[in-house]
UniProtKB/TrEMBL annotation:
Species the sequence originates in: marine metagenome
Residue intervals of the SLBB domain: 223-298
Gene Ontology CC: cell outer membrane; pore complex
Protein's membrane topology: Multi-pass membrane protein
Cell location: Cell outer membrane
UniProt entry tagged with the keyword Membrane: yes
InterPro entries per UniProt: Poly_export, Poly_export_N, SLBB_dom, Soluble_ligand-bd
Protein name: Soluble ligand binding domain-containing protein
Domain Polysaccharide export protein N-terminal, residue spans: 140-205
Length: 329
């Protein structure tokens, strides 16, 4: 018997004794197991018959011995990579890896920050909860203001004759002064009307001087439509501008544009107001004073873009056609 076969015989004897008597595990070297595995099936069966051993039972015992002496069972991944791996192993391995992934995610205590809800730029301009709008009845008369029906003048006389008169401009554009008669003032600026009244008094009364001041300002009717909080017809001061009119109705709605606010007069478009000019540059040139019968129409919001991160004003911005990312930043 050759030396290789002697080693194999010794391996059979050790395994057989261990299986019957369940004694302390022998120290079987990996070289002995490899030599037995290299034998052909016919040689393995011949050795088994010589020693009266069932080769199938011996192989099972060999597997038990290998595990007990410290052999590491193949991982699912190794079974999956092994040539000829059964389909059951492939399914089991894939399922095990999937479950491990779910468990890892479930045990992950990393806190993810919730997405920040960006405000719409300029929406706070007409915030109804902040009372920044005040009536313009007591405001100084601006240069260029034209007198019209409904305006009034306070006239105080002193000298040889005294008196205090409140005079309203009628629908014909005149004031009726006692002892003097009608004085045409409609269409004049405040300064022109004031000068005309004083000259008429001094020419009619000798030794009488006068003080003329502006009284109550007339109201005008506006129609405010489109995407605003409360559209409708409003009676407001004649000094009301586009932004003041929007304050009156509670501002634009969530889908209203801040950059496309159109003023129409007698059916014609007069101007388009862009609130970004006011917010970003303080430009009020297009925030014009409205006239009686004007229509203020707020269009639907246009294209929008969000910007966040290391910027001065992270928000949602309404952009005009032709603008670039650089313009937005």
């Amino acid at each position: 018997m050759t030396k290789g076969k002697s080693i194999v015989v010794l391996l059979f004897a050790v395994l057989w004794v261990g299986a019957l008597q369940v004694l302390a595990q022998p120290a079987i070297s990996p070289e002995m197991i490899e030599q037995f595995k290299r034998l052909t099936r016919a040689e393995q069966e011949a050795l088994a018959r010589d020693y009266g051993v069932d080769i199938d039972q011996l192989q099972k015992q060999q597997s038990v011995q290998s595990v007990e002496i410290g052999a590491r069972p193949a991982s699912p991944a190794e079974q999956l990579d092994a040539p000829g791996a059964p389909e059951e192993v492939v399914r089991t391995s894939a399922k095990a890896e999937f479950l491990v992934t779910d468990a890892d995610l479930a045990d992950d205590e990393t806190e993810f920050a919730e997405p920040v809800s960006l405000p719409r730029f300029g929406a706070g301009l007409f915030d109804a909860s902040v009372s920044t709008f005040a009536p313009t009845d007591n405001a100084p008369v601006p240069p260029g203001y034209l007198i019209g029906p409904g305006d009034s003048f306070n006239v105080y006389l002193y000298g040889k004759e005294t008196g205090d008169h409140t005079l309203f401009v009628n629908r014909e554009g005149m004031i009726i002064f006692p002892k003097i008669g009608p004085v045409q003032v409609a269409g004049m600026t405040y300064e022109e009307a004031k000068s005309s009244i004083k000259q008429r008094i001094e020419s009619q009364f000798i030794g009488v001087s006068s003080i003329v001041s502006f009284g109550r300002m007339r109201a005008i009717n506006l129609v405010i439509t489109g995407e605003v909080s409360t559209p409708g017809m409003y009676s407001v001061s004649a000094l009301t501008t586009v932004t003041q009119a929007l304050f009156t109705v509670g501002g634009v709605s969530e889908i209203g544009s801040l950059r496309n606010i159109e003023v129409k007069r007698l059916g014609e478009s007069v101007i388009v107001f862009d609130a970004y000019d006011l917010l970003l540059r303080g430009d009020i040139r297009n925030d014009i004073r409205l006239h009686n019968g004007d229509v203020v129409h707020v269009h639907t919001v246009g294209p929008q873009a969000s910007i966040t991160g290391a910027v001065n004003r992270p928000a949602i911005y309404e952009i005009k056609t032709g603008k670039t990312i650089g313009d937005l930043v």
